Amino acid sequence: MSKVTTVWADRVLRQVVGWVKVPVETTILRIFKEVSDAQISQFEALTHILRGQHWRRLLRSGKSKVGVQLVQWVDVDSTVDTVCGRQEGSAKGFNPKKKGARSYHPQIAFLAESKEILQAWFRTGNAFTSNGVVEFTKQLLAHLPNRMRIIFRGDSGYFVGDLLELLDTRGHGYLIKVKLKNLTALLAKQNWTAIKGQSGWEQCAFQYRCGGWSRSRQFVAVRMKQPKQVTGPQSELWDTTEYDYFCYVTTEPLTPWKAHKKYGERATCETWIEEAKSQMGLGKIRTNQFLANAALFHCAVLAYNTVRWMAQLSGNKTLCQWEPDTLRTYLIRVAGKLLTGNNQLRVRTPADPLYPQEWDDWVKVGLLA
């Protein structure tokens, strides 16, 4: 928070926005500590409202039809945010990098096409990956266009019957990695066929009903041969072939191999989470109060989305691909001079930027705002 106040204490920024001075960090933090549960809900709703306005503006400008497309892939994932201390709401839970350390466990939904955050929840550290995912998805669907069908893509932590039932009932789809205790034994019984052009790979598809489900669902799987080294005079008597299995439950008409490759695309979702955490401060600005931390978390979500939305409005494909830090380096942290003549405030910047087309497109978004 001290860095935030330092940036906004800059004389040029204060004159541009008309501020006399910037509150000190303790004052800003005190304001955040007065946030209520209802205001956190308003933060979540604000993200949806602004996104709807942005999608309509994109459509009117002809820059994108993301808001009117009938099918969209949505990547949902959770992330561990380790804390140093005993902040309210932090707890010991799943933490692969620092086992036993206290953390928060936010849950985030990304739109695969545009990399924007559709919805985010700030959760306690002992929340399991799928905790509240049904309510999370209901809230997400309520704020998306009714005509839009989403395809929920998630890891094995989201292999939850109630979630699949909700998506089936609402007419949406899913591609989720399967997590079952008897999965290897179940897959070993299936009829496998070789995948054309993929040496050592086999695939299968079958219907299966897990305990507690109201009906069976489509499972697809691939496996890769892993030769096991067995040495000795009787090694030829041993079955030396082992397999790595990859199994998914899905509603989409994809071959098992295509489903496996499509699921692999969600790896970029983890990259976007790291961008939001390390480059936009998502969950990194903290107080000792849970609701204040949740409010700061949602401010970071809005900041991340604002950068994404500006890049989309520019119509520049390069800007849409750049990370936030890249945008800062080449388009924001640039040399300039504030001119105050003729009762106007103008910022003069270098005439030969390193990326002239990206600079012009980025500035044009601000001028048209």
Q: Topology of this protein?
A:
Elements (H helix, E strand, L loop, with lengths): L1 H7 L2 H7 L7 H8 L4 H25 L9 E8 L2 E2 L8 E2 L9 E3 L2 E5 L5 E5 L11 H10 L6 E6 L6 H10 L2 E5 L5 H6 L4 E2 L6 E8 L8 E11 L13 E10 L5 H9 L2 H14 L9 H25 L2 H5 L2 H9 L4 E3 L6 E3 L7 H13 L1
Parallel strand pairs: 1-7, 7-8
Antiparallel strand pairs: 1-5, 2-4, 3-4, 5-6, 8-12, 9-10, 10-11, 11-12, 13-14
Please estimate the helix content: 40-55%
- What would you report as the Rg, rounded to the nearest angstrom? 25 Å
| Number of structural domains | 3
The multimeric state of the shown protein is: single chain
Distance between the termini: 27 Å
Tell me the strand order in the biggest sheet. 6-5-1-7-8-12-11-10-9
Q: Can you count the beta strands? A: 14
Largest sheet descriptor: 9 strands, mixed
Q: Stretches where pLDDT falls below 50 for ≥5 residues?
A: none
Mean pLDDT value: 90
Task: Give an overview in words.
It is a single chain. A hairpin with an 8-residue loop joins strand 10 and strand 11. The model has no long low-confidence stretch (mean pLDDT 90). 40% of the residues lie in helices and 20% in strands. It has 13 helices and 14 strands. The protein has 369 residues and is of the alpha+beta class. A nine-stranded mixed β-sheet has the order 6-5-1-7-8-12-11-10-9, with helices on both faces. A three-stranded antiparallel β-sheet has the order 2-4-3, with no helix packed on it. A two-stranded antiparallel sheet has the order 13-14. It has three domains: 158 residues, no CATH class; 80 residues, no CATH class; 52 residues, no CATH class.
